[in-house]
Specification:
Blueprint lengths: L15 H7 L4 H7 L3 H11 L8 E9 L6 H9 L23 H7 L5 E9 L7 H16 L5 E6 L6 E7 L12 H20 L4 H10 L8 H9 L4 E3 L8 H16 L3 E5 L2 E4 L3 H24 L9 E2 L8 E10 L6 E8 L4 E7 H4 L7 E4 L5 H10 L4 E3 H9 L11 H17 L4 E4 L2 E3 L4 H12 L3 E4 L3 H5 L6 H7 L10 H19 L3 E3 L4 E3 L3 H19 L4 E2 L7 E12 L2 E7 L4 E6 L11 E7 L3 E5 L11
Parallel strand pairs: 8-11, 19-22
Antiparallel strand pairs: 1-2, 2-4, 3-4, 5-7, 6-7, 9-10, 9-12, 10-11, 12-16, 13-15, 14-15, 17-18, 20-21, 20-23, 21-22, 23-24
Helix pairs in contact: 3-7, 6-7, 14-15, 18-19
Length: 635
């Protein structure tokens, strides 16, 4: 049979035009000017028809860099995350010079680059290779092919069935010019070099080895080399496996066995003896099946680290349900080997485990162990848009501005009405790109009747999550402040809790927290349950604020002055404090007095400047960010 069915394993699924677009360089320009093109002819000739080459999958991405973006740092953070080494240790960056590369220095060296190259190199026999030595040798050969020294770092991962290496390369040559790599070299050349090197390291793959590996693919729930061969040989979607002179008995038997498995799974149908029709979208179906399998494996690994196992039916891999669910983040990683998104694995209160995708930058604020809510619905802006449109189905910017100015709609703390309208227009633009709304002109938008439902579905597809608490359950049980557990205890509609997983843990934590509150005199056990002190959340928050505020002031030889409902607090915004009860702004009211006021994102850009806030009952706050000249400048 042909070596690996003549398949070019590892070819990138995005075409050259898409890769080029990522850096705003045309495919034609890459082909004309890119480095590595000159070696391709010789490299193809040297490997063409050569039997026994080891199989290596290479995936690539060119990432356009944005000044000040946190995504590049977040990407390296994920590569270095915990539990990815052979023995479950943290990933470790290395480079051409040592086993402990400085990721911060690497990012600084590439801070002015227009783009960055990211590769995943996954040898089929990676478990038998010294991946660090293999990667260094591969990069040396790549440097020779490209005619420049490369600035790169790499991390080996062994948290999947096949150990693999993530390689990140700066986008400049050793002479400081933009590094342009030929499309052919990216999509094929590096893979050929990787296969050549793996074969040198481990020896030529014997026919027996290849047969064993191919036989193992017969019942694999993913797109395999056998499937690729079947699609290539099919005539009009029909695979004819009747005996003939073109296939060896082994090759024919392999295909027939795979077709029987595909038929059992609903992806093929036997029309007559030894003749099958293939599903029109066989490749996409099997690729999705393989991705789902990889996700389930990641979920099971995360659960195993906690000493747990779950029924496969409780593992939700895609958007199989869109119900907002509260749960604990038990693991996170890259959503795809080269993508700019992160995947959170969330153990829900309902006993189900979900995979939720978020942006890399936003995922930094969601540590493992955080309690989050997934499947968010329509945003506050969406509800405002629907309110302005009313029954007419027409949103008008001038109408929105009029309602804000007349206080018919709430104006966020410290915001100008015109700025609020502009932010809603930006939201409408995003929804227009998602084909939910239609723009008539810059001031008028058509809003569909089911707008809120469509907006909610859009948010759920984006995988937006809201952090409910950064505290683990044990910290919340003994917390001096108001926690998520407390909110659940006093809620009129508490979350439903499963008898397994995180739901079962929360049941125990709620009982223990109730006991702690009773001991502190904030509740009374009636025999039928615990009756909590009226205004429990406010009282817990105030108690924590007094302790934290006095400690903060004492350490700076100042005086803590509690902010009272109805009071106007003005002064210099000095610092943000994160307490168990939430985030609070330290406002220096005089050279010797400070107060703690509920923090809101709108004030962060006013750090070190004068602010004022109206304290509302229940620890509400209304921030005013215009200068308060009645008091003179704050010190």
């Amino acid at each position: 049979m042909d070596d690996e069915f003549g398949i070019r394993i590892g070819r990138i699924r995005t075409d050259g035009v898409e890769i080029a677009r990522a850096t705003r360089i045309s495919a034609g320009r890459l082909a004309r000017r890119g480095r590595g093109q000159r070696v391709m002819s010789g490299l193809r000739q040297a490997t063409s028809g050569r039997r026994g080459l080891r199989r290596v999958i290479v995936k690539a991405r060119i990432v356009q860099l944005k000044v000040g973006s946190a995504a590049v740092r977040a990407h390296l953070n994920y590569l270095e995350r915990d539990a990815v080494g052979r023995d479950g240790e943290k990933g470790r960056l290395y480079d051409a010079f040592g086993d402990e590369a400085d990721g911060k220095a690497f990012l600084e060296r590439g801070s002015g680059d227009r783009h960055q190259f990211r590769f995943i190199v996954s040898p089929e026999d990676g478990a038998d290779l010294d991946l660090q030595r293999y990667t260094r040798e591969l990069m040396q050969r790549m440097e020779a092919d490209l005619g420049t020294v490369l600035d790169w770092v790499a991390v080996d991962h062994a948290d999947t069935a096949h150990p693999h290496t993530h390689i990140v390369i700066c986008g400049r040559t050793d002479r400081g010019s933009d590094l342009l790599i030929a499309q052919d070299y990216i999509t094929e050349g590096l893979r050929l070099r990787a296969r050549e090197l793996a074969t040198e390291e481990l020896g030529v793959q014997t026919p027996e080895e290849l047969r064993r590996k191919l036989t193992a693919e017969v019942e694999q729930a993913r797109f395999t080399r056998i499937d690729r061969a079947l699609l290539r040989e099919a005539d009009g979607g029909v695979a004819d496996l009747r005996p003939g002179p073109f296939l060896s008995p082994f090759d024919r038997g392999l295909r027939v066995a795979r077709l029987r498995w595909l038929e059992a799974e609903g992806h093929a149908h036997e029309l007559s003896p030894q003749v099958w029709s293939l599903s029109p979208d066989l490749e996409s179906q099997l690729r999705r099946l393989g991705e789902r399998g990889d996700i389930r494996k990641a979920m099971n690994r995360a659960l195993a680290r906690q000493g747990e196992a779950r029924d496969p039916a409780s593992l939700i891999t895609y958007d199989e349900d869109r119900i907002p669910v509260v749960g604990r983040v038990i693991d996170k990683g890259l959503a795809g080997v080269t993508e700019e998104r992160a995947a959170l694995i969330v153990d829900g209160l309902d006993g189900k485990v979900r995979r939720v995708e978020v942006s890399l930058a936003s995922s930094d604020a969601v540590p493992i162990g955080a309690i989050v809510q997934t499947g968010q619905g329509a945003t506050r802006a969406d509800h405002n848009i629907a309110e302005v449109a009313g029954g007419s189905g027409l949103y008008r910017t001038d109408e929105h501005l009029r309602r804000l100015e007349r206080k018919e709609l709430p104006l966020p703390d410290g915001a100008e009405a015109a700025d609020v309208v502009r932010s809603h227009v930006r939201r409408l633009e995003a929804l227009r790109r998602a084909r939910i709304v239609e723009r008539y002109d810059e001031e008028r938008w058509r809003i569909p009747a089911d707008f809120l439902d469509q907006a909610a579905a859009y948010e759920q597809r984006r995988g937006v999550v809201r952090v409910v608490s950064l505290l683990d359950l044990e910290a919340q049980v003994n917390s001096p402040g108001a926690t998520w557990l407390d909110r659940e205890l006093v809620s009129r509609e508490p979350q439903a809790l499963a008898d397994r997983g995180f739901g079962a843990e929360v049941k125990v934590a709620l009982r223990r927290r109730s006991e702690v509150l009773v001991e502190r005199g904030l509740g009374r056990d009636t025999g039928l349950g615990v009756r909590f002190h009226p205004g429990l959340l406010s009282r817990l928050t105030q108690m924590e604020l007094v302790v934290a505020g006095e400690a903060y002031a004492r350490g700076r030889h100042m005086h803590y002055q509690p902010a009272q409902p109805g009071e106007r607090v003005s002064g210099t915004y000095v610092e943000k404090l994160t307490l168990h009860s939430g985030a609070f702004a330290v406002v220096q009211r005089s050279p010797v007095d400070i107060s703690l006021v509920p923090w809101r994102p709108v004030i962060e850009k006013h750090l070190g400047r004068h602010v004022a806030a109206e304290i509302e009952p229940g620890l509400g706050v209304s921030w005013s960010l215009t200068p308060d000249r009645s008091r003179g400048p704050s010190r």
